[in-house]
Amino acid sequence: MEVELAHVRIGGASVAIFNADARGGMNHDRHRILAELVAHARLNHLRVDRAALAFVRNGRLTFFGDRDLVHYLSRIGVVPQWTHRLRL
Length: 88
Prior knowledge:
2 helices; 5 strands; 5-stranded mixed β-sheet
């Protein structure tokens, strides 16, 4: 399985935004999958200060993760260009 991610700098922080959602769709599942994806990104030598999931839910782009990052992404309403693919 591969997951797309945008690895960008926002406000001086190294940010990872993953094109993924937890299968169960519950917040505890999302916390788990986000932690796993961050760990995998770091194993691939990417610095990650803040992270979020990006997915479509009920036809709307939705974000889950670091509160400040989610607020910022929700305000701009778009995901930066995907820059990497993580093979899991």
